[in-house]
Amino acid sequence: MLSSCPGAKQFKHPEVDYYECPSCGAEVEIWTDEIGWPCPNCGTMVYRVREQSCVDTCPHARECLGDALYERLMEVRKKPSHA
Fold first, then answer.
1. pTM attached to this predicted model
2. From the first residue on, what is the mean pLDDT of each consecutive set of 10 residues in the chain (83 residues)?
3. Nearest-angstrom CA–CA distance, 78 and 83
4. Domain spans, the chain
């Protein structure tokens, strides 16, 4: 894996973001390297808001992140974006 790309920091050193469940309004904790997480209150799957990142355009993204993390992040493209 490459170690110098600043754009991949959010994936290599994840931080927590909080989202509101669209079904019940409860707070859902989703880390920056996760696609989504079930609501702890009602079980509804809550997906992180998808923002464009270096993973979308960089030809070295797979090498930088490693196969497993790259594939997991590419799954975001297949999921709806919820706030």
1. 0.60
2. 63 86 96 88 89 80 85 70 46
3. 16
4. 6-78
